[in-house]
Design brief:
Number of helices: 8
Helix content: over 70%
Largest sheet: none
Distance between the termini: 53 Å
Radius of gyration: 21 Å
Shape: elongated
Length: about 180
């Protein structure tokens, strides 16, 4: 992993050769035998090893266990984002059918969306990032706290303040 972190390609190839069967079989079981998803997730696992400064600490456990933990985390993230994407597509399909039935809703939704976008633009960078990560990218508050290297309580407080500001802006606009 030290060589992989130094972008030594043969080291990544060696890890791939040694552990591809193990990682693939783990992912295959995790995805209930979905071959396409399994292949994609395996790519994401090795891409994560290559692109992040992942460090295995031998004092904390066996390398294989560490690799499977990373694999599990990538699987969970993939499934969560995939289900969020599926849910958004389903909601989008439902909204299209309702828009056809009532054209006033489409106009109202567009006005509301632009008002919400305008309200969101009044937030500072960290507040906008939090809203995007939580509501549009599907991360949990705990995951966001880890990404931001801040306590969960701080993230919750920032979310509360952000939503309060958006609500205040929308109330002023009578939405």
């Amino acid at each position: 992993m030290i060589l992989v972190n130094k972008k030594h390609r043969p080291a990544l190839e060696e890890l791939y050769e040694r552990y591809i069967k193990l990682v693939y079989s783990f992912v295959f079981k995790f995805t209930n035998g979905n071959e396409d998803k399994s292949k994609e997730i395996v790519q994401l696992v090795f891409l994560k090893l290559w692109t992040t400064k992942s460090n295995h600490d031998p004092l904390k456990g066996n390398f294989v266990n560490w690799l499977l933990t990373i694999t599990r985390n990538v699987c969970v993230d993939y499934i969560r984002k995939d289900s969020l994407h599926t849910q958004n597509n389903t909601e989008l399909n439902h909204s299209w059918s309702s828009e056809i039935a009532d054209p006033k809703n489409e106009i109202e939704n567009r006005v509301n969306f632009s008002e919400v976008a305008e309200a969101k633009n009044k937030l500072n960078f960290s507040q906008k990032r939090l809203i995007d990560l939580l509501y549009w990218k599907g991360y949990s508050l705990t995951e966001i706290a880890k990404m931001e290297n801040e306590p969960v309580g701080t993230i919750k407080s920032r979310l509360h303040q952000s939503l309060k500001q958006i609500k205040k802006h929308l109330e002023v606009r009578d939405l």
